[in-house]
Design goal:
Layout: H1 2-13, H2 33-53, E1 65-75, E2 80-91, E3 94-105, E4 112-119, H3 139-144, E5 148-153, H4 168-174, H5 187-202, E6 208-218, H6 220-231, E7 237-241, H7 259-265, H8 288-293, E8 299-305, H9 313-322, H10 324-329, E9 352-357, H11 365-378
Parallel strand pairs: 4-5, 4-6, 6-7, 7-8, 8-9
Antiparallel strand pairs: 1-2, 2-3, 3-5
The structure holds beta-D-galactopyranuronic acid.
């Protein structure tokens, strides 16, 4: 009798852990950090490039230039120096550029570490005059904590519409011989590329500590922040706020937004190859816990919201938890638990941080406070 009952008991107990994920250490699992750095990390990054986010045609353009278009040393009632920088570049398709808004704290020791937000909302959310203030980018709070508050509009790099990639970075670099079908970069990768060009600017500003900088994004901006942090190892901390499907959430959970839905609603976000996995998540050679692991040994933070089922909070948590073995190769702690915390109980003890905020899909003061607390541990060396 017991012989027959046992499989039934297993079926009832196991479903939650029945999720079969690709090995986070790679296809021939890395046994040492050297192995990871030299072999499995590049292989993992290449799989994400080829099948999901697409290949950027170049890194830092030789002609990248920075022009200070506004400076106010007494911004925020004297608390910060505002610098607005026009970042320009050109390629075979012509010149493009974007504006970087930067508040540098006047009081803190220089150079100051900071947070770069990839803003996926309108310009009113990142008002440099500070007439309009928004919890989405609480620049005053960031500055008061001693950090540079920097941001740019994602749409300046690539409009968030299916427009045949005729603008921004795509216009400059894609148009000369058409876009390669398959793995050509798309919109999310262009936003991530812009974050790296902002970091190129920070490296030239003596008031800014570019070697201690976080990249952060919300939702679609969070997907871009993760891709920026995975590609650009100069980012010390990568923060994903409610990034969901093809951000932090595991595709194999098939919960909330799925690959087919995201590719249908936003056909311009990822490369064409990604569409091969519509309704076929199990065929993906990677899953999103491996994207998070690409940050190791640097710090990474994943946050979810309790009423954001579309982004699959549990899938985001599990991805963060399953990145752990790569951190352990470096002798570091990841998240170190497989038990999802209760709402508003952040986990900040290792290099992988996590919280589940009570409430809806959003980026607000509570989230930022957690990111600043985590930054105090990882951005001040
Ligand atoms: C949703 C989309 C999500 C998420 C969100 C956002 O419509 O399905 O993947 O990115 O938009 O960016 O707010």
């Amino acid at each position: 009798m017991f012989k027959y009952l046992l499989p039934l008991i297993f079926c009832l107990v196991l479903p939650a852990s029945a999720l079969e994920l690709p090995n986070v250490l790679g296809s021939s699992p890395a046994k040492s950090k050297e192995d990871w750095i030299k072999i499995q990390r590049p292989k993992t990054l290449e799989l994400f490039t080829k099948h999901i986010y697409g290949r950027a045609p170049l890194g830092k353009p030789d002609n990248l230039s920075f022009e200070l278009i506004k400076e106010d040393p007494r911004a925020m009632n004297g608390a910060a120096t505002l610098k607005i920088i026009k970042i320009s570049y050109s390629g075979p398709g012509g010149e493009s550029g974007f504006k970087l808004i930067t508040f540098i704290p006047n009081k803190s020791s220089k150079p100051a570490p900071g947070y770069l937000l990839i803003c996926n909302r309108g310009p009113e959310n990142i008002d440099p005059t500070r007439k309009k203030k928004d919890d989405f980018w609480p620049a005053e709070t960031i500055v008061a904590r001693g950090y540079v508050a920097a941001t740019f509009l994602n749409a300046d790099l690539s409009t968030d519409k299916d427009l045949n990639f005729d603008n921004g970075a795509h216009k400059s670099f894609d148009n000369y011989d058409g876009r390669r079908p398959g793995d050509a970069w798309a919109t999310i990768a262009a936003w991530a590329w812009g974050a790296s060009r902002a970091l190129d600017y920070f490296e030239t500003d003596p008031a800014i500590d570019a070697s201690n900088f976080a990249v952060i994004g919300h939702s679609r901006g969070g997907k871009a922040a993760l891709w920026a942090g995975a590609n650009d190892e100069r980012f010390t901390l990568t923060i994903s706020n409610n990034s969901g499907c093809t951000g932090a959430a595991l595709a194999r959970r098939k919960h909330g937004e799925r690959v087919a839905s995201i590719n249908k609603a936003f056909p311009h976000w990822f490369c064409e190859n990604y569409k091969n996995f519509n309704d076929e998540e199990n065929d993906l050679p990677i899953d999103q816990h491996q994207l998070i692991a690409l940050m190791a040994p640097r710090a990474v933070y994943i946050a979810s919201a309790s009423k954001d089922d579309w982004a699959d909070p549990r899938g985001e948590f599990l991805a963060a938890a399953h990145a752990g073995p790569v951190y352990r190769l470096f002798g570091l702690k990841g998240l170190e638990t497989m038990t999802m915390p209760k709402p508003d109980k952040p986990i900040h003890s290792g290099r992988v941080g996590y919280h589940l905020r009570t409430g809806k899909h959003d980026l607000n003061q509570y989230d930022w406070e957690q990111y600043l607390n985590f930054g105090d541990k990882h951005l001040r060396k």
